[in-house]
Specification:
Helix content is 0%, strand content 54%. The protein is mainly β. It has one domain: Beta Barrel (AttH-like fold), CATH 2.40.370.10. The strands form three sheets. Strands 1, 2, 3, 4, 5, 6, 7, 8, 9, 10, 11, 12, 13 and 14 form a 14-stranded mixed sheet that branches.
Length: 358
């Protein structure tokens, strides 16, 4: 079931009345930014692979932070059978506890479904959906409801910026980069109100990713009201012992007013911290664990660091293994005091597992 964990198809929540439900469209081939009427976030017919990914960070009234990532996939097999794999993880940042679970259901049995209109995807008892705005206008609203062993998540989000769309020849991303969230988390028999923000991403594609070539997606939400989206792939290692290098596919900066700026390769620096990796004790897979980011004349020198190293999503059998985790964003500009400037989420495939010692 590995390949159903399809691609760089991620999900997050956002949208806005501010722009009368207009959408910024980024044509990947030309990097042109335009606006259009907001498209449906439901199933887009004609595509084999789709995913909806909602990530976020929320805090209780007494300052305890929780990070979460929910991914819902829709995959059409060659024989026409529709499968809905899903993955959900929650990190209690105060204790370091990670709650993670995967499930897969088949369409037509009443256990999984996705609407073709507004966003409404359900896999078992997990569900993410768009809630109609009051009076038919205003900002789109989104609900995420999920229960794992030991923890229950109920999130209500309202988009604060317009959706932007990234298009290429074979795929499309619909991204909401700024969603204000409220809700509650029930843990250890105690329900606690939470508030924070989230990111929602709907991706569609025809192609299966090359899982032999690791990829990574980075979603950064700065506390100053801006967001940064980066998608990258790791180039193949030229010789044994040489370091892999990130090849940048696309990068975007979302301004406070929702304007989307394409970041060209010569306008920003981004890469892994040399020699800083995490070796999974479960799969022996190697993951980078610190990244550096700087956008010329736009940001400080930023360091992206995991809130917990062990945020690997595991699969039964031969399923695809990947790391889907929350990061803190720090100012590492020379002379700075290392202030925390925001948070984010990283979705990435790792490097081949290290062979176990005989």
């Amino acid at each position: 079931m590995a390949h159903e964990l399809l691609r760089r198809l991620a999900m997050c929540v956002c949208s806005a009345a501010l722009f009368s439900r207009a959408t910024a469209i980024v044509e990947a081939s030309t990097s042109v930014v335009a606006t259009r009427v907001l498209p449906s976030d439901g199933v887009k017919t004609g595509y084999r692979d789709q995913s909806w990914r909602m990530t976020g960070r929320v805090t209780t009234g007494d300052g305890v932070a929780f990070s979460y990532a929910a991914i819902f996939f829709r995959y059409v097999e060659p024989n026409g059978v529709v499968l809905y794999p899903a993955s959900l993880s929650v990190v209690d940042e105060s204790s370091g506890r990670v709650f993670s679970e995967r499930r897969t259901e088949r369409a037509g049995l009443g256990l999984a479904e996705a609407a073709t209109g507004a966003l409404n995807v359900r896999v078992g008892t997990w569900q993410v959906r768009e809630t109609p705005a009051a009076g038919g206008g205003g900002e789109p609203a989104f609900d995420l409801d999920a229960k794992l062993a030991g923890i229950t998540l109920t999130i209500r989000g309202i988009a604060r910026k317009p959706e932007f769309v990234i298009r290429s020849a074979t795929a499309e991303h619909d991204e909401y980069s700024s969603i204000a969230c409220d809700g509650q988390i029930e843990l250890d028999g105690r329900a606690r109100p939470v508030h924070g923000k989230a990111w929602l991403d709907h991706q569609v594609s025809h192609s299966i990713p090359d899982t032999a070539q690791p990829f990574a997606e980075f979603r950064v939400q700065l506390d100053d009201g801006r967001e940064i989206s980066i998608e990258a792939a790791v180039t193949r290692v030229a010789r044994i012992g040489s370091a892999p290098r990130l090849a940048h596919r696309s990068a975007y900066l979302v301004e406070r007013d929702g304007t989307v700026e394409t970041l060209h390769a010569d306008s920003y620096e981004f890469g892994e911290h040399p020699g800083s990796t995490w070796l999974s004790p479960h799969t022996r897979t190697i993951y980078p664990d610190i990244w550096g980011l700087h956008v010329d004349d736009k940001t400080e020198f930023l360091s992206l660091e995991p809130v917990s190293y062990d945020q690997e999503s595991l699969a039964r059998g031969n399923g695809l293994v990947y790391w889907d985790g929350a990061v803190d964003v720090y100012d590492v500009t020379p002379g700075s005091q290392g202030r925390r400037l925001g948070s984010g989420y990283v979705l990435m495939l790792g490097r081949p597992p290290k062979p176990k010692n005989p």
